[in-house]
Amino acid sequence: MRLSNMRVRGGFTLAEVLITLGIIGVVAAMTMPTLMNSTQGAQYKAAYKKALSALSQAVTLNVALDEWDFADADGDTVYNISKMLNERMNVVRCAAPDGVGIDCQETSDAIKDAKGATYTARNTADSGTGVEDNVELSADNTTLFFNDGIMFTFEGAAANCTNDPTKDGDICTGFIDVNGIKAPNRIVKCDEGDSDDDCEIKSPTDVYPVKFYDQTVLPNSVAARAVLYSK
User: What is the DSSP letter of 161?
Assistant: First the structure.
């Protein structure tokens, strides 16, 4: 038989295939955590922006329909912040102290456990913001859970929330947890920098301090602002 008529067939050995698969597995194991953190951070960021927008729209709608806002709230059964948010947003469950103007049916053990529980949350490393290392879900707080899983908690007796020096009141504070009481329950912080000019956040977390007054809901820390205004 002449050599010109012979066909040479090439292929991979089993050892070569196994080595290739092993390399692919190692690379995947190294990159997957980073990819998952990036995806989760993007979800937290989007949910946070959505929550701020929804809260702002709720008070704007209330002004249009009932002609009162955070500054007019007095904690009574009519001009009550928790009652207003319950009527203007899709609140599916809540936890609140007695006498705050909203009837909370605590049908979930998770909500009961949340009252009085302490979040293991890192400080934002921001100076002068009043953000504590641990965010507490006190029994004195009103905690609202929305139908998209986002949670908003604030002092149960919050009233007269205003930034107007001519009015009797002050800015009120609380925090948004974009995935409810689920982990990681960590306050967002700056990975680099500590001011509005240089704060950089590589992996947004799920807890965001906020302040609310008049017809406004805004971030209440450098890191929370950085997440909101980042692209």
Answer: B
List strands edge to edge, sheet with 172-177.
Answer: 91-95, 141-146, 151-155, 172-177, 207-213, 216-219
Which pTM value belongs to this model?
A: 0.77
pLDDT digit string, tens, across residues 54-97: 999 999 999 999 999 999 998 777 888 988 998 999 888 888 77
Do the beta carbons of residue 73 and residue 100 sit within 8 Å?
no
Residue 66 tokens, joined: 């009932």
Task: Report the C-alpha dihedral over residues 63, 67, 68, 74, rounded to 10 degrees.
Answer: -150
- One-letter identity of residue 218: L
DSSP state of 187: B
* Residues near 175 by beta carbon (within 8 Å), at least 6 away in sequence: 135, 152, 153, 154, 187, 207, 208, 209, 210, 220
99 pLDDT exceeds 70? no
What span, in angstroms and rounded, lies between the C-alpha atoms of 117 and 10?
Answer: 65
Amino acid letter for position 171 = I
